[in-house]
Amino acid sequence: MSAFAIASTAFVVLEYVVKIVAVGVVPENRRPSSSTAWLLLILFLPVVGVPLFLLLGSPYVHRRRAAIQAEANRLLAQGTESIPPVPETAAISPELAGIAELSRSLTSLPMVTGTNHGVVMDYEAGIDRMTRLVEGARESVHVEIYIMARDSTTEGFFAALEAAVRRGVRVRVLLDHIGSRKYPGFREFLTRMTEAGIEWHLMLPFLPLRGKARRIDLRNHRKLMVVDGVTAVMGSQNMIEASYGSPRNRKIGRRWNDITVELTGEIVSSLEAVFAVDWYSECGELIDVHTYRGLGDPGSESHLLPAVHEPVRAVGGEVNAVQLIPSGPGFRTEPNLRVFASLMYTAKRRLAIVSPYFVPDESVLAAITTAAHRGVSVELYVSEVADQFMVDRAQSSYYRALLDAGVRIFRYPAPEVLHTKCFLVDDACAVLGSSNMDMRSFGLNYEISLLATGGDIVEQVRDVIAEYAARSSVLDPAVWASRPLTRRYAESVMRLTSALQ
């Protein structure tokens, strides 16, 4: 037998061995849709599929991070044992109380009270509000935002951080490495923070030459700020100008549309805890915060348990029952996915969902279409054209099933980008934060979402959605059915690639 024949035979045998092993390995701890996508790629294109799977296909986050999150959950559960399942002053339905308990069991964060100081949908006003809060800081400012860039819109915010350091405030900043590095002036931005005395770390850094290598598709997508442990801001907005530093975006009028909410009261402790865990995960420093009042020993190991603050009432502020839902690869139980789907099944009259990237898990798609089939008025708000080609085609592949179930799809007019992430269930509760309704947010991104009920946050989220409805057009099922075959093919391909997790 010639050398060529031997090599060819060995290659064929190796290919079949790889495929047989893949059938047994790939589906482990993975959704069926994801398993199918990976197996198709490996079986049909093993030269491409195997390296990609080894690089991106692990369903586990780094063991160290998972261990840190597990320990944080243990400490939080220990420190919140005596906090009631729902605030004693809140009138909550049994089914919603059950979902609050579900979320608590998944994240160790209880439903507490929080005073709302306004859901803001004006992009620049959201940044200005954060700037003013930093200007009033006395002890600490903790900022954790996926994308950060220093530009004409954000200059005032970063100048306020620098001024805070000069007057003795401890300023800590976390920003996602992959998410932020592509924007102009990234290295100079980091240098300026160092020179100003701002403590900063990259979240989930991919720096293999420095021994920091991991799955490059993991992101910390959270957006939050905590000032003095008393006031917090969270939402969907990144710290960058509204056109994301792109001259082309500015030329064609493409701007991102987001919402943020300012909070005081007990809920700030939950946000503080999330920041403390992420800070420790990146640099190993335990932030010196207090235990919950009356619970535990301040000198004990419970370093990650922040102080519960009394609700602060302000003009226009109203106390809500609220619960923070952190999620991400460090959690093995997908808290946002389980809580979101459970909430959707409680809808009786209306379910309104705003998500710029809508590539749902099977369970979420089933919850949405089931609600529509049982007579609930279901609305989905998306951008007319998503800012990412693959996402635009992948999410479009779900429209037929949604339309057939009776879901009304509202498309926010191009070229603007609807970047808000929120949804409303009847008039009972609202959810807002950083989490999209897509498989990336459910499985690959670190996210935070706020569940709110029994106060004015629900009303303000309803007003935000009403504003989006007024600006949007409703997708006509007949028009959608007539789209070209080439478009349908691209949608199917992108839907398949979206499941490669």
TrEMBL record:
Database matches in Gene3D superfamilies: Endonuclease Chain A
Q: Which SUPFAM superfamilies match?
A: Phospholipase D/nuclease
Q: Which residues form the PLD phosphodiesterase domain?
A: 216-243, 414-441
Pfam families given for it?
PLDc_2, PLDc_N
Q: What is this protein called?
A: Cardiolipin synthase
Report which superkingdom the organism of origin falls in: Bacteria
- Positions of transmembrane segments: 38-56
Look up the record and give one Gene Ontology term from the biological process aspect.
cardiolipin biosynthetic process
The GO cellular component terms are:
plasma membrane
Q: Which PANTHER family match?
A: CARDIOLIPIN SYNTHASE (PTHR21248), PHOSPHOLIPASE D (PTHR21248:SF22)
Which keywords belong to this entry?
Cell membrane, Lipid biosynthesis, Lipid metabolism, Membrane, Phospholipid biosynthesis, Phospholipid metabolism, Repeat, Transferase, Transmembrane, Transmembrane helix
> Gene name on record?
cls
Q: Which organism is it from?
A: Leucobacter chromiisoli
